[in-house]
Amino acid sequence: MTKNVPPLHAISCDCGSHRLTRRNFLAGGAALAAGLAAPAAWAQERAKSIRSIRSLRGLVRVNGERVNGAAPVRVGDSIATGADGRVSFVVGSDAFFLRENSELKIESSGGGIIDSLRMLTGALGSVFGKRASGQLTLHTPTVTAGIRGTGCYTEVRDAGVYFCTCFGAIQLTSLNGGPEELVVSSHHDPRRIMRDTATNNMMMIPASFGMHTDQEMDALEKLVGRRAPWAS
User: If residue 138 lies in a helix (H) or strand (E), which one and from where to where?
Assistant: First the structure.
């Protein structure tokens, strides 16, 4: 005699207090699919959160590799721009722009916080968040700058270094035992640091304001949720 067999969709299993039905099975499958999709969504959100480059034009390389506007920039990276390149980016509470034909190395002694920059050539605009302790050092071929929370613009060219303390206080120390100066500014105070061809000694002299603007420096501050002193 053939027994009556219930249709497949009606089969259930009573395992303790849990009953597996077709509805529960489908609901569980949907939850599983959502769980599998979650890592991808999480990865996309994380990619957005670590995106460092905020604007890019022309050729920009990070650690020798050409990048686009979605690339991160991290402590330890080297950033370089080509003849048509320009880039702005954020690392932590600090923001930067590099003009064409520029090369910058971001350094740290640990903890993922920038404590040293090496500007090899070109032009750099930068604003820095307040450091809880210590200071950041910006190295150039003719001068080092001791920085806490401030903004500055630097150009490294064959004739020497143009350095503007846009706001804040920066200790400038020219290389090879040359002159030093603590520059305190609320609205641009530039210096030119170069070698005196007559004496071969380093010299640091006041310079005229140029090559960057109020709007550019305030735009950097906006990238990290602040405003330049003259804009507040």
Answer: strand 136-139
